[in-house]
Structure formats: structure tokens, C-alpha cells
Write a structure and sequence with these properties.
The protein is an alpha/beta fold. The chain has 13 helices and five strands. It has a five-stranded parallel sheet with strand order 2-1-3-4-5, sandwiched between helices. α4 runs antiparallel to α13 and α6 packs across α13.
Amino acid sequence: MINRSTSLTQRTKKSLLTRRPLPYLMVVMLSTILALSGCQKSPEADTINNAQTTDAASVNAPVADSNVANATITADQQVNLAPLTILALGDSLTEGLGVANDDNYPAQLQASLQQMGYKNIEVVNSGLSGETSTGLVNRLDWVLQTKPDITILTIGANDAIRGLDIATIEANIRTAVKKLQDNGSEVILGGMQIYDNLGNDYVKSFSAIYPRVAEDMNVPLIPFFLKGVGGDPQLNQADAIHPTKEGYTIIVNDNILPVLKPELEQMLLSTQTNSQASVATPAVETVQ
């Protein structure tokens, strides 16, 4: 009897241990759920983090206006660096008879312009010794292959030395200016003067050609191409006609550049304005 009762007691305890009350199981389940939910991010935390990320992206993102400004600066720089051709057209005074190739006026002019910041300007020397106004007109088609933006035209001295007809000289100069203009070149006319050995009337009539043509054809004028140099033995070669290197330096700095620089600035400003207008004008889509 004692053994049987003991066995019954042990089985009862085992049954009680195996079958837990329902409230106890619910407590265990709730504890587990709370523990799991504690490992996940709250929606509020995600919202805060997303807002911080968005703010950081906004700070680091480039400003659209800044990009536009940078693009404008780049366009301006390209305009300023646009290639430009200056044609030096004339006779031996342009060619540089008797001086080194680097010492004639076209070479010195290009060097001066580059020092001034006009890096992409090319000065083409199309001077020809012995050239007259008639000869120059006859070779215009050939020299226009250079497609000059600006032409410095200095011609007529050889005509005057030979005593050629004033009306013919003027007609040839007008023809040259018009043809250059018709081909898209701005023209700067270099005025010439001669010695009195051909007579006072001829000298005055010859000198009057250049300001008259310049005014009639609306071109800038260098009043006297050789001003400050002509007649000075220290600035001319032994023939007393053609300048030395030092003479050409004066011609470039004192006679040519004061007339050329305003033309260059106006031309580059016009090009820049047209370029900016093209960039600013939106493309219009055609609806069909």
C-alpha cells in the first residue's frame, strides 16, 4: 500500500509540472513578442533618419544657378579665345624690306597683341615689294583666301613715287576697300604722304585721298602710317624710305595699335553678345 501511494503521488506531481496554467503561457508569449519588437526600428526613427539624409543630400547637392554661371563663364572664355585673322596688306613697307622676318610690322604687331592677351590672333603678312594700287587690286582674290576678319591696308606710295594719276590711285583704293568689305573684312586704311619733289599740288592731292576714302567708305584711318618715323635717319635704313626694326616698333605702338585696339574690342564684344544671345534663346519645338 505504501509503495502504491508513493507512485501515485509522483505521477500527480509529474502531471502538474507538464500541464502549466494558461495565464502563465500567455505571459511567456507576451514577453517574447516585446523582446522581438525591441530589436526593430520604430517608424518614428525611420522618419527622422530619412529627414536627416534628405537634408544632408540637399546641402551636398550642387546649386543649379551655380552650374549655369559656370557654363556662362566657360562660354565667355571661348568667345575671348576665338581665332581672329588680321591681314597686313600692302607694299614693301608692309613686307618689311631690309629687316628680319621677326622685325617687320606684322610680326611685331602679332607679338604685341599676344602680350596684351589676344592669344588667338594671327597677323598675316601680305606685303609685296614694288606693289602698286593696281597690282594690289589684281591679287585681291588670292589674298582673300586668308579670310581676314580685319585688313590693314597700306598702299599708294609706289604709285606716288612714279607720279601716277591721282584719280587712278584713289579708284584702286576704293575698289580694294569695297572688295574686302564685301568679303566680310573690317578695313583699317593706312594714310600715306610723300616728299615735295613731285610738286606741291600733287603732294596735297595724294595725301587727301586717304581721309576722303575713309570718310566716304566708313573705315578707320591711320592718318599717316609713317608718323614719327618717316624722315628720321635713326629710324630708317640707308635708303631713307624703309624703317628699321626700331622704326617699326614705333609704327606699331604709336600709329597702328591706337586705331586697331578699339576695332578689336568692338568686334570681340559683338561676338560675345551674339554668342550669349544664342545660348539664352531656347529652342522651339515644332508640333506637327
